[in-house]
């Protein structure tokens, strides 16, 4: 058992949210009961995840996508009111870590996706940024674009959107950014990287891939960001002895 403030201190020490500018507050977003024994982890603090945490008698929820994003309406109404009401009524703490969880070199979303897909991490895609969100790596063995698409589908449990019209015959170098990281494809293309993976795609992403001679994979925002928070929960269980359960609320996007 641990206090909610002690848990926040441990997570902040590991993830260093102070070192990266973000679009939301990182850490304890909604305060619940002081003592925490059981934690539910998940990708997004949706109503479905909150309800599952209530059913599991959890003391805290730990997610990648929490609340209070910059630019969102400040009013506590509708969906936001219902989510917060459920948390407060059941005295459940909500912890959220966004970009700090993307970039962590061990439990981060990008690091975990690389591990899952057999990519050896080499550096950040933004060489001037020590906290680069997008990464660059190398495959252990060169692979065709279509075979890499099959590997992604097998490992993530969903078919990626794949564009490989003009990419090289074999993929050796890969850049990636989990979630909504498709805009980094331009920087990857400028660096001559063979393939780029993100969670999502925009209309212009496909044109960039075709015109710059790259393979591109949109593997799902949710699917690419399951693994960071799952690894973070496993760290809490192994190192700090908390009871942690990962709950995957499926999302096809």
Automatic annotation (TrEMBL):
Record-level Gene Ontology MF annotations: metal ion binding
Keywords linked to the UniProt accession: Metal-binding
Binding site for a divalent metal cation 1: 65, 102, 221, 225
Residues engaged in binding a divalent metal cation 2: 64
The organism's place on the tree of life at top rank: Bacteria
Coiled-coil intervals, chain numbering: none
GO CC annotation, single: cytoplasm
SUPFAM superfamilies per record: NIF3 (NGG1p interacting factor 3)-like
Family affiliation: Belongs to the GTP cyclohydrolase I type 2/NIF3 family.
Classification via PANTHER family: GTP CYCLOHYDROLASE 1 TYPE 2 HOMOLOG (PTHR13799:SF14), NGG1 INTERACTING FACTOR 3 (PTHR13799)
Protein name as it appears in the record: GTP cyclohydrolase 1 type 2 homolog
Provenance organism: Aeromonas lusitana
Higher taxonomy: Bacteria, Pseudomonadati, Pseudomonadota, Gammaproteobacteria, Aeromonadales
